[in-house]
Amino acid sequence: MNLKKTLIISAAAVGAALFLYGCGGNDAASSASGESDTISVGTTAGYSEDVVEFVAKQAEKQGLHVKVVSFGDYVTPDQALAQGDIDVNSFQHGPFLDAFNQKNGTDLVSIGNTYLAPLRVYSKKHKSLAELPNGASIAVPNDPSNEGRALLLLSKQGLITLKNGTDPTKATTADIATNPKNIKIVELEAPQLPRALDDCDASVINGGYAVSAKLDPKTAIATEDDTSPYINIIATRAKDKDNPTYKKFVKIFQSPETKKYIEDNYADTLVPAF
Fold first, then answer.
1. Mean pLDDT over all residues of the chain?
2. Residues 199-227, mean pLDDT to the nearest whole number
3. pTM of the full predicted structure?
4. Which of 96, 119, 175, 184 could form an SS bridge with 166, CB 3.0 to 4.6 Å?
5. Residue 200: what are its φ and ψ, rounded to 5°?
6. Where is the lipid attached (S-diacylglycerol cysteine) (predicted)?
């Protein structure tokens, strides 16, 4: 998920969406001390948005109106949340949120788990990691938490090793200890990773962007295992973590109906974590 270009493109669309949303008022955000019948939820294109849309329909049956605000990158949903433009968001995992808070001095917190979206390695040129030649190029996400996540996946596959004591959730290329095949790590914005398949030997792609690019998870040449700490979450501002409306949304998200929807529609992509 080039960053400046992505933000410029997404900012226009997001700005318009938030302007229209703002014209209608932000009742939930402005009444954090009490329960409201409206909540605004930020998300990103792909399965994240689709699942939130399903939850929104379920919430409507319980008298809670969900305004879904879709963003075009992984940065603006947290910016909008921190600024109070939306009430909660659902698109990221815990380590990504921690990295955003550390970089921006914000105080966003998780109020509920959603699912694990395994990171996968795809290739148009090779049928397995074993086929990768010396000097092969592998594209990885360039944001701090997902780059570490990609490097951890590559290390578990035996392509590289990380220095002793490295926190895998914060690993960078500087933490690579050994690289027997002299793999070239190409750091890119996450939305560019599917397109990198035309130029690189392989690409480590986040689930949402893999779905948007219509990549079949069954064709991946490596997949993150279920011991991953990268479970996706619902986030809000720390001061609003006990908001009853937000808690109601989390409860509806973590319902048997939502779990069944995920399992029926994303069996090869997502693993419910509630």
1. 89
2. 91
3. 0.71
4. 175
5. -95, 160
6. 23
